[in-house]
Structures are given as structure tokens and as C-alpha cells.
Amino acid sequence: MMTIPTPYQRFEGEVLPEWIDWNNHLNLAYYLVLFDHATDLLFDELGLGLDYRRNEEKGTFVAETHIVYERELLVGEKVRVATRILGSDEKRLHLGHEMFRLRDGERSAAQELMFLHMDLKARRVSPFPPELRARIGAWTEAHAALPRPAWAGRRLEIPGRS
Q: Which of 61, 73, 77, 151 maximizes the CB count within 10 A of its CB?
């Protein structure tokens, strides 16, 4: 039985020169690229990665995502992404990522995602297979011991307006 890392922190990346925008910092789209690489590592660990897609013709689609940008990242800066499973059920996986600069440990951004499990042949939402559901459930339970992040479940709005 493997120990489940809480949070899962195996991804480290670097801000590439071609990702820099006119403001001379990381363009918003590339935060998503870095977070996506972290998702890929977690999915490989869970058995939900590329091999699963190829062999089972099943995978995930993102139904919704939110990113909170807190600190700019400059060219060459290195980051680490800490990932937690915020929730799961028979067809959904709710993830949260936090991106930290390696040089000072400051959080630069956070992302929340809702994934749907898909039958890629039918192009329809489908339940996770039992073995995969059990593995995701074990990780969800382990990550439930982490404090719920304040940025999870936020709504995008102008304060004072509805």
C-alpha cells in the first residue's frame, strides 16, 4: 500500500522566455500550462493518465476552472505546484492547485478545477470504473485532512454587486 502524499507536490517547472507578455511577466495562459502539467502527473499517479485514455478510451474533460493570480512570475523563475483533491464522486473530480515560487516559497497563483469522467467513444459523461473510483476515493479521503483553502469555491464578482 502506497502512502498518499498530502498535498501532492511532484511538479516543478520554469517560466520560459516565450511565455512572457508585454508586461514583462508570465502571460496568464501559461499559468494554466504549468497547472496542467501538475494535473498530468497526478493523473498518471492515479491511473487516470494517457495510458488510461489509450487503453480504456476513457478520460476527463474540465467542466469549469478558476485561477487566482496573486504574484507575478518573471522569466527563469522556478515554481512548485501543490495539488489536493477537494472532492470526488462517481463521475467528478474536484482539484485544487497552488503554485509557489521556489526562490521564496511565496504563492503566485491558485487554480480550482472540476473534471468530468468521460467515455471518449460515446463522448458522454460516465462513472469511473470501480477500481479507479476506489483509488480516487482513497486520495480524496487522505486530502480531506488538509484544511480547505479559502480560495476554493469562490465566485467571480464585483464586491457589493450581485
A: 73
Q: Is 114 within 8 Å of 38 (Cβ atoms)?
A: no
Burial of 96 (0-12, 13-18, 19+ CB in 10 A): buried
Quick check: pTM over 0.85? yes
Q: How confident is the model at residue 159 (pLDDT cuts 50, 70, 90)?
A: confident
DSSP 90: S
DSSP string, 48-89: -SHHHHHHHSEEEEEEEEEEEE-S---TT-EEEEEEEEEEE-
**What is residue 134's predicted lDDT score, i.e. its pLDDT?**
97
The C-alpha atoms of residue 83 and residue 101 are separated, in whole angstroms, by 15
In the predicted structure, residue 1 carries a pLDDT above the cut 90:
no
Q: In angstroms, what CA-CA distances link 106 with 8, 25, 29, 48?
A: 17, 16, 20, 30
How far, in Å, CA of 15 to CA of 9, rounded? 18
Output the pLDDT for position 162: 64
